[in-house]
Structure prediction request, 288 residues.
Amino acid sequence: MFNIDLHCHSNVSDGMLSPAEVVARAAANGVHALALTDHDDVAGIAAAQEAADAAGLTLIPGVEISVTWGGQTVHIVGLRIDPAHPGLAAGLAEIRRGRIERARRMSDDLARSAGIVGAYEGAYDYAVNKQMVGRTHFARWLVDRGHAPDIRSVFRRYLTRGNPGYVEHEWTSLENAVGWIRASGGMAVIAHPGRYTFNAREQHLLLDAFRALGGEGIEVITGSHHPSEYGKWADLARAFGLKASRGADFHAPGEGVDIGRLPALPHYCQPVWQGWPELAPHFSPSLA
Ligand code: AMP
Ligand code: MN
Ligand code: MN
Ligand code: MN
Prediction:
């Protein structure tokens, strides 16, 4: 089977491996084409591209943009973006600027409502890219300090709405995120739609609004979806004229799903990667 994974993270955002290590792991797992989609930053793509060239793997330049829509955080993946596009770069830089101030508020809230002090310094220490401190860095610090046994439990007790360490934050708009992705030549995809707590009406509004802005795809197979949810999102993709994507959302060995280790898309889905010329060598090796 052609193995394509269109969602993963390096230590440029909240992954644990360097971009080159992520690519090496993908190659070892039998992945033919990989999108590196770090949160709100494209600084890892050059190194990933170099590693992909050496490993004979096709790298798709990507990003995962944090958006506020309908009162919730929604993640929009950009695929085949141009990381050098000035409009995209400026938009991402603006999002990153908000993260430091947010991290201080998260830390203050952990101290005030759970008596946990020093979280900002702790999380900051775990972030390789100091502009990209996020909840996963807080989560790893909380685990290492013994406040929870693993990352999953952290997010059940801390850092999520209603729990210590959660603060409201206004990310960018859906319109901006889709606009920057498209302006840089990329394709916008709604990440892990099953993670949001929208009701059916709100889900439909999101898909409609996204489509109207020029969004083209939705993740159907992701590490965030239970297999019982795949069919629902495949059906919604078809009903709303969206293409389907597949990505593990890999962050670190032992955390969640590994790169490329996911089921195939349901056969009736139209894959986001259909017709991408850079994939042609994988289908006709004699022309490579
Ligand atoms: P942030 O962008 O700083 O809000 O951090 C969001 C990241 O936290 C996501 O990309 C995931 O890596 C992680 N995360 C959020 N919720 C969970 C969860 N329930 N379990 C595991 N990781 C989570
Ligand atoms: Mn993440
Ligand atoms: Mn996400
Ligand atoms: Mn992700």
